[in-house]
Amino acid sequence: MSSSSAARRPGFPVALVLVPACLIAASAWFLPSLARFSSGFVSYNTVVVLLGTTLLGANAGLIGTFTVLRGRALLGDVLAHASLPGLPLALLLLGRRSFSAMLVCAFIMGLAGVLLLTLLRRYTRTKDDAAMGIIRSVLFGLGIVLISVVQTWVVEGSKAGLESYIFGKTAGMLAEDVRLIALVSLVSLATIVLLFKEFQLVSFDSGFARVQGWPALILDNLQMGLVAVTVVVALPAVGAVLVTALLILPGAAMRFWTERLRTLLVGSAVLGALIGALGSSASAGYSLLPAGPIIVLVGVAMFVISMLFAPRRGLVARRIAQENFRRARRRRRLLATLYELDEIDGGENDWHPADRIAARHAWTPGELLQVVTEVELEDLIRRRDHDGAGQLCRLTTAGTEHAATIVRGFRLRDALLDENPDQAVLVADWDPRDFDENLPPELLATLENRLRGAGRLPAGAGPAPPPASSLGENRS
Amino acid sequence: MNPANLLGPDLSLAFWPIVIGAIVNSACALLGCFLVLRRMSLLGDAISHAVLPGIVIAFLFAGRNSFGWLFVGAMAMGLLTTFLVESLRQWGNVPEDSAMGIVFTALFSVGVILLSNFAHDVHLDVSCVINGDMDMATSKMTLGYGFEYPQVFPRMATALVVVVVFLFLFRKELKIVAFDPALATAMGFNAGLMHYLLMGMTAVVSVSAFEAIGSVLAVAMLIVPAATAQLLTDRLRTMLLLSAVVGCLSSFFGYMLARKYAVNSAGMMAVVAGLQYVAAALFAPRYGLVAKTWRSLALSTRIAGEDLLARLYRNEEAARRPAGEAFVGSSRMVTPKWIDRLARGRLLRGGEVERIGGGELALTDRGRQTAESLVRSHRLWEAYLVQNFQLPLDHLHEPAERIEHFIGPELQQQLAESIPKTGVDPHGREIPGIAPAAPRDEPSS
To answer: pTM to 2 decimals?
Structure first.
């Protein structure tokens, strides 16, 4: 590593950050003109909603990634429910409706919920999960009580706005809401960029961060604060229950695609934006369907797609890798078994019944057919019918050479493990073909000499065939 | 005949809501004990959201009053949630909390969409499912077996009976799975099956609860009473009983308060349950904050007092010795002043020290005995450390200062037997009350 790259601060490339930041700011502040421009195609309202949900998705994806990584995925859920009492409280305190006061009160209640959670964890014997459940449900109950107080005591029509807290009223989003969301997005983007290194360390090894003298607690609370702000701002759009999903889904989905935090964050933000945009445009067509659930279902679809089809960690990719591994192993075993059977018979390439080989390795007929066909196509074996009772296989010259290498690898491994059984874990995933490349040369020479002494070293013109006692693969 | 009428005009209106609430709450609380013990409260939470599509589908197909189908639908959704969470965890390597969040929000969304598209046909209100409405749930009365009771009563009573029977039948399995799933598996119990059964039952109770207290507040009743009971006891049976009691109390006080102030009764029940939890967290005999603080305060005071006694004793000792050998080492542990003052007061009241003017204290005979025993423990321990760990002399005081408060007469006896019988500690100071075994004149010869 050169000194210049070591000196570079491990943060975000500036351009990568400036572009979305400018986009966010510009789109939010020039929203009216943007909407006028596009009003030929879609309604002003649709543009507002689309922009709002997109920004919201991006922001939730960004912030939510950290909660997913830190095993606090349900923190958003707790915060969303715990902040419910904030809304009626704002009404009761002010005596009139004020959106910003409601948000501030909700935010404060959310923080109070987090504080209570910390207290319960620290001072009672209640476990984490139960503590979260208690905070969430009791504060939500309190919220419901206060709402009914507002409904009976405060006469002016204040019921609207509280109902939508639970499910959200995406269609009612205003340009001011979008600006607020944009502001919050910018703040969280800036925080994450500035504290990227710190957040990275705290996310993966908070104990180490603390030992290194970093303010882990402050960083922790900062992250939770960002979640709280995001939740409170997202509530009017998607509702208390469903904001949880927006926080979890992008991060959890992107986790299948990458193992680098930077890529994960950028990807989650993009994916979140995509979820928000697709979801709100899908629900724009159906007035019957509330947008919140649609957005969530779009997100779930993305998650499922990622889980199935992501290149390395996806289910399909893992399944394919597994199958390839099994095929390679079957192929090795077939060749090695044929070779060793020949060895017993005196070194001549002979016909052997395929069924017996299959039975030795517990292969199904399908697996046998697959491996035999594959190896025959490679011109490593020949095969013919055995008077209607199964098939016979025989190594070709090329196949014998190939098999000799494999058997040599197996026997070297067995010889090594005979002496050093404790190395079994180490050699478990070595390929028998390049087994000897992994060994120190002097050890390799010793093992080869021992095999040669026992007459078990496969080479083109090996000495006398070994006793019929052992077939290397069987013991592995 | 309506049993509520026996209570007189004032309580008769409150009778059925309270009874229904008590039934629902105790059913939730009983099951919740196992959720809390197995640290799966949040899965219960997830299930109580995820049953929403089950409720809607059951209502669509079987109508409002067929609670058999409702239970079946709920059970199916509960099992589905559990299965999906487990699958995501096992096959997708998704962390459990993320998996729960994804599954329950997805199912909940499906439920909301079903509700908003088809709910006109079944008179199912979204906010009723979320918040519940006790008065509405108990307003429709019906007549059967000569009694008049609310329409929802049979469903909720059935749920409670099912829960109690389930807990009774599987009490052994549930208990062992709750406390040691690995042992349960080793002993041949199917921990996985119990897990699924428990989750299915959770779904059933949260469904039976949703009309009265709402599916969100069913979560409160699943978790809060059980957590409260857990603070109060260490025995499973007591915990079950206590949780049911907390559930019933929540129903009673919650409803009465709600009626008095004309607020939402389901929310009030959750709040009352929360208050009971807070009370338990503060005042529980063993695990309460007050008891814990009291115990640690008592210990601090005792240690501070004992340190004071030992200091006085050492001063007396130093006064007996030739000059220039005054004891200077003192406790390195800094105790707050007020603890010191408390300790002083305790010693004065106990007659272990007395004032000798000028703010000075002196040991009484009783105090001297205590102090002697402490100093004996201290020096025995120092000798023991040198004997067995070969610690250098300047490393002895601190560990001994810490442990001297916890060495009783028996341990003193054992220590005295295991060290050289010289009667002095490694610093050459006499160990009070331990006579040197060898004849006194031998060292001088």
So the answer is: 0.80
